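Why do we bother with holo predictions? Because pocket geometry can differ from the apo form. Keep that in mind while you read this record for coenzyme A.
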Amino acid sequence: MESEIREVKAKSAYRLQHNQSIQEKEAFWKKQSDLLSWFKKPTEILTKTGDFTYDWFKDGELNTCYLVLDFHIEQGRGEQLALIYDSPVTNTIKKYTYNELKRQVAKFAGGLISKGISKGDTVIIYMPMIPEAAIAMLACARIGAIHSVVFGGFAPHELAIRIDDALPRAIITASYGIEVDKKIAYKPLVDEAIEEATFKPKFTILFDRFNDHQEIYDDQTLDFQTLLEQSAEVGCETMKSTDPLYVLYTSGTTGKPKGIVRDHGGHATALRFSMENVYGLKAGEVFWAASDVGWVVGHSYIVYGPLINGSTTVLFEGKPVKTPDASVFWRIIEEHKVNVMFTAPTAIRAIKKEDNLGEMITNFDISSLKKLFLAGERCDTSTFEWISDLIEKPVVDHWWQTESGWPMLGTMSGEIELTSKPGSAGLPILGFDVQILSEDGKHLPANHEGLVALKLPLPPGCLSTLWKNGQGYIDSYLSQHEGYYIAGDSGYFDQDGYFYIMGRVDDVINVSGHRLSTGEMEEIVASHPAIAECAVVGIHDELRGQIPVGLVVLKDRFELEEDNLEKDLIALIRHQIGAVAVFKHVVLVKRLPKTRSGKILRKTIRNIADGANFQIPSTIDDPLIIDEIKDAFLHRKIGDAFMK
Ligand code: COA
Ligand code: AMP
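The structure, written out:
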């Protein structure tokens, strides 16, 4: 009874506050921005800059690295832990206080300046999950250089695409990444990418992880540690609120990823707000996002968010299983007294697969943990319930994307905290006006699935534009329905206002919580000389949420064994995108299902593989093809419907 009364009160407080955050957005965000230590406080809070575009805190000046490090030291937190590096793959735990992290960041920043990198230059960071990745990011922020972190699991071709778009003055990398027990040499990958790219960065800075001096250091290849040690500390450059802090590329529907641009002022304001009000984390507490700095979660909640909040962040180099086993999450929570954790549902499913009865957790004390947050993909109710029962703490599914930079749906912390509903990604976070629109732009009522849209202007922290492609930003997100940002997901809300995100409406899939483009995979598969046409679709996978499957039609004169063709195409995708795409299945068909106007019916293919109920579209050019596709999946035993 008491908890029901609390829930009712929280709900009405939430509604009131959410309403205020939308109706009086300038007052709401001014109050939040006042909590930051600006070099020059903004007087303009929200400025319209075009038909659909806005700037936050336009005349404000600050530096994000200052807020993350120097400010806390000035507040007396210098000897508090800022970062804990826990690497089961190298058996290493290393701890950095705010003082030590600042020393290394300020010296490395000095090193970058000494090599001619300055405010406004772009720098690509292609590194494994080591503290030097965070040091490199913060050093760039300190001097006003714009970092672009590329996930270490991407192949050279992906890196080359990003080099040609970001035009970096330098690339910062490390000698090796470690995948469970495999050492992956990064420098040859960087060299291959530079070779492929049209634009040539001036030099590479290499962190020699194991001091094995495999590289020759010269003007083109500088040693990270020497540069850091031999350079003097530098202070923080003054940045305009609207200056770009970083560019992070994310998959769109084509082979060319989108360069999401994040500003300084809006980003810092939003992340600070989210740490306290979404995650319920105080300064001095420990936050662990088990992600990678190559993804937006890593940017926002391994590096910037927890540190802006004066908290301690855990940087984990390992996997939920196999490093060494499915108890590693519980060991880390106990050992570092983690208060709030963030991971992807896939990681929970991987643990559940290894330790279905949840026996391992009983050997650990996880009492420090207040809440577990999940995001990156849809969380099925059975995973949600399994983990909730196991840890006996609130589990919060929350929805966001690279573009938003912080959560758009979820349940908040504090007096407006509401209980999560399994299967739902929660309610709109304060500041986000989330609505469901039909294809023709009408508002849909409760329990009707449609496009998930955000009413403009977006709150602070969301993408300000696409890198050197302002029109692309408008075309991709803002022009479909005037006054709205279209997120690319479909979903609905229920009678209580809880939202359910059902999946992408475009050619983007989520593999183990990693966002990948099937459009890009199709371009690569189609480049094989034997392929006449192809479709790559994301089908359901018990562990990874989705995996890609290629349906291919051969050119007339080619007769290839299905297995050999599959091997060729797998190798091609691994080489061009990376193993992380988990492209492992190819199905040979005589033709693809299409509408009479020639559009490939990808959703129908997906439904066939998943065994979902569906109606054969009335626009299909030849209904008989459905049975042919079913036979082809059955023959390869691919898809939930045909695996047994
Ligand atoms: N560098 C190089 N290769 C990488 C890599 C990296 N940073 N990350 C992944 N890969 C490779 C892996 O080695 C693997 O290669 P293989 O096919 O040769 O074995 C392939 O990419 C697939 O990797 P992964 O998806 O990690 O598969 P896995 O079987 O090793 O682990 C899970 C499965 C479920 C444990 C893992 O995917 C996982 O931890 N998922 C959660 C991810 C997450 O937190 N996402 C949230 C992002 S916000
Ligand atoms: P990324 O930009 O890589 O973070 O991927 C963003 C996409 O992941 C979203 O557009 C969704 O499709 C999906 N996603 C993220 N979080 C959730 C969630 N909680 N529930 C459902 N889908 C999610």
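The mean pLDDT is 96.
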